[in-house]
Amino acid sequence: MSTLVPTGGRGFGVDIGGSGIKGAPVDLATGEFTDERRRIPTPEPSTPKAVAEVVAQIVESFGTASGDLPVGVTFPAVIQHGIARTAANVSSMWVDADVDALITTRLGRSVHVVNDADAAGFAEAHYGAAKGVKGVVVVATLGTGIGSALFVDGILVPNTELGHLEIDGYDAETRAADSAREREGLSWEKWARRLQRYFGVLEALFWPDLIVVGGGVSRKHDRFLPLLELRTPIVPAALRNDAGIIGAALLAAELG
Predict the structure, then answer these.
(1) What share of the chain is helix, strand, coil (3-state, %, to 5)?
(2) Which end of the chain is more exposed for a tag (fewer CB within 10 A), N or C?
(3) How far is the C-alpha of 194 from the C-alpha of 190, rounded, in Å?
(4) pLDDT digit string (tens) for 191-227?
(5) CA 96, 175, 120, 78: dihedral to nearest 10 degrees?
(6) pTM of the predicted protein model
(7) Which CATH class is domain 10-119+242-255?
(8) Which of 3.30.43.10, 3.40.50.1820, 3.40.50.20, 3.30.420.40 would CATH assign to domain 132-237?
(9) What's the rounded Cα separation, in Å, for the pair 2 and 8?
């Protein structure tokens, strides 16, 4: 998947998360919302039928503003050809569910479903912190877990799941995610040491030209990024929590 799409036009993005589902129409020339983003709490339990219903509510709430726009939907799972192979922070009923078919049927229109970190990374590569960067780029989202998106000369390598690398005998995200910092009451300095180890392993494996750090904690990037000593330039994400919606809309337009 390249980051080259026709300039202009619009798409619609929906970002499914563990606590909320949000969406908005997107101007694909600028990566900006053309209307205010709308959010509905993720239903509990977050079953396929219940989540699909909320996605439909969000899209349909924009009325004619959503029109016949291409619709992209992010999902917190490995997505292969529209099918969820894992389930993170949503019901286990999603494993092996055809997310694409389910939401397409409920909306009565074609959709494109993508891993949530891949969508966020795609937006950063096209509009944000990784725009125009050649070579290998890693986008890592630090939150409840660690999401990842890997690009080679602007081409997305999907479903990398680099947050689940085993490092020093641990699943990396259990020690280096922002949730670990909060859960263990780590200082920024102590958490940065864990990030140093994590990103150091990524450097050794992929030799990236740039690392982009996203997730809500990236708003406080000045508290931890300067503490890292890496050979790779590492920068905060530019689009923050809007990246998933923007990337989903862009991918839907490109692949539709």
Answers:
(1) 40, 25, 35
(2) C
(3) 7
(4) 999 999 999 999 999 999 999 999 989 999 999 999 9
(5) -10
(6) 0.92
(7) alpha beta
(8) 3.30.420.40
(9) 17
